[in-house]
Amino acid sequence: MHFISHRFSLLGSLTSKTHRKPPKFKIYREHRYSRVFVYGLFIVFIWGLFCAQRSITAFTNFYSNTYSLAPKEILSDEKFLTYLPHSGFHNQRIELENALLLAKQLNRSLILPPLYLGEPLKWYSFDMLYDLLRQRNKTELSYCSRVSSAMCDKYDAWSMLPWNKIYNLNAFQDFLRLHERWSMEPEALKRFNQGTLEGIHYIKDIWKDEIQYIDEPRIQDTRGRYLTRINISELRLQSARIICLGSVFGTHRVTARTDQALQYKNFIRSKLIYSHPSVLSVSKEIIQKLGGLHNYFSIHTRIEDSIFIVNAEENVKGSVNNMLKMLTLGDKNYFRAHGDLLRASHSKGNTAFHRPSLDKCLQLHQDHPTHYPIIYLSTDTPDPLRNTNLTILFHTFPCTFFAGDFRAELTELQKEYNPLDGTNIGKFLVPMVESMVAANGEYFVGTNKSTFSENIRYLHNTFLGRLDPIPLKY
Ligand SMILES: Nc1nc2c(ncn2[C@@H]2O[C@H](COP(=O)(O)OP(=O)(O)OP(=O)(O)O)[C@@H](O)[C@H]2O)c(=O)[nH]1
Ligand SMILES: *[C@@H]1O[C@H](CO)[C@@H](O)[C@H](O)[C@H]1NC(C)=O
Ligand SMILES: *[C@@H]1O[C@H](CO)[C@@H](O)[C@H](O)[C@H]1NC(C)=O
Ligand SMILES: *[C@@H]1O[C@H](CO)[C@@H](O)[C@H](O)[C@H]1NC(C)=O
Ligand SMILES: *[C@@H]1O[C@H](CO)[C@@H](O)[C@H](O)[C@H]1NC(C)=O
Ligand SMILES: *[C@@H]1O[C@H](CO)[C@@H](O)[C@H](O)[C@H]1NC(C)=O
């Protein structure tokens, strides 16, 4: 069976449209000839007009941009649901999944907030979060897209995009009506509410994990993780045109207990698969470099921050063991080849290791497949070879390769700009490429409790259409 066409046909193919950053100003120093200086000024002035024109065009073209959903008319009896986004990409994705599910169950259209990439805005209680979101505004710094200045340090640290740039939301056309909210200014809701902010039904969360939305309430629900529960059937009776929620992050935030709801949930997940053209093409190139589908296995280790650094050593060991177990279950020869390696790598103080080149590994792997499995390591740490918690992994699997080994392929992403703010979004696409490469490995082992890993797991099981020898959750 050939998975390459099958796996990638799942993703569809969009035509790529590149957005280039306007060239930076070049200031020529000319002291002697003031006429030249005046001409210079004039040219700069014209160029400034040109740039302003360009950014305005970019803005007004936004809705006709292939990435944005076509704006829909608002129906007279249409009702809406919306929510506040927060945290990293995968937390926002989970919020999106939950909001789609809840909107469907409420028979309401969903007003999508933008997707925030880069430096995350973490969760705060409703009023605070809404305020922080509206303050995330680059308008006053828009010159930063054209010039470099100390004021612009943070300009490229984050960017906002329509979700449709990352996922193909047209897949929901027959499922639910989607509208985009291209600003978190409260005023942006007016156009859905007959020009006013009156009568919006807010459900404000004050605590983290406060409100859960339940489709078939049970008595034992009171013992769950969430502080309060809302009966979805009751919320369906709400007559306000707009319901505005705070955070909807959390795996069980919106329950899907009925068969119908479960069907909706599965449908939603199955449509949220990266569709960004460069993400797809670059991940394909890296997979080819690794010897193609079926030729490599993958591990995701999240070890840099929060709960993940605290458990880094243990998690990496767990991942190495799980990968060894999977390989052995798949082919007994792996154990024979790796029993010794594993014992050796567990002995302390042994930090030196030799990593063969990728070409050498491809050769070794061809000659002795069970001795030298090729591993793609997706990780949040910038220099995996120097991170001592990863030493055991490189010891056990010398043929382990990671993003830094594919610089040439990843450079492609540098041409991706957000037309709205001129920010280069290439760096934000790297984790998505890594997810795609990892998901396409023969077996996948992730990091406990990481939503990033959990998403790779979903993509992996979906693309391969089977479970791994050990059916891990992450
Ligand atoms: N390049 C790369 N970056 C990663 C990887 N894992 C985590 N990261 C980075 O860590 C960030 C945090 O992960 P996200 O999933 O966005 O954040 P989150 O929503 O808090 O998810 P988790 O903390 O993993 O549950 C990602 O956006 C990446 O910037 C990885 O394997 N490769
Ligand atoms: C869903 O809402 C629409 C109006 O937006 C209404 O016409 C339709 O009857 C509703 N469907 C159900 C099942 O309530
Ligand atoms: C940013 O603020 C300006 C006003 O200063 C406003 O016109 C614009 O819509 C805001 N942008 C976003 C994305 O909220
Ligand atoms: C949930 O709401 C529906 C509709 O109002 C009602 O029939 C049902 O009894 C409620 N369930 C609970 C546990 O309150
Ligand atoms: C390795 O992991 C431990 C926790 O298991 C952590 O305390 C330590 O800081 C980590 N080392 C590095 C280099 O990240
Ligand atoms: C994740 O945690 C469970 C126990 O909570 C453990 O059995 C499993 O091995 C861990 N997985 C990894 C990859 O560390």
TrEMBL record:
Q: Which residues cross the membrane?
A: 33-50
Q: Which Pfam families match?
A: O-FucT
**Sorted alphabetically, which InterPro entries does this protein's record hold?**
GDP-Fuc_O-FucTrfase
Species for this entry: Basidiobolus ranarum
Name under which the protein is recorded: O-fucosyltransferase family protein
Which keywords does this chain's UniProt record carry? Carbohydrate metabolism, Fucose metabolism, Membrane, Transferase, Transmembrane, Transmembrane helix
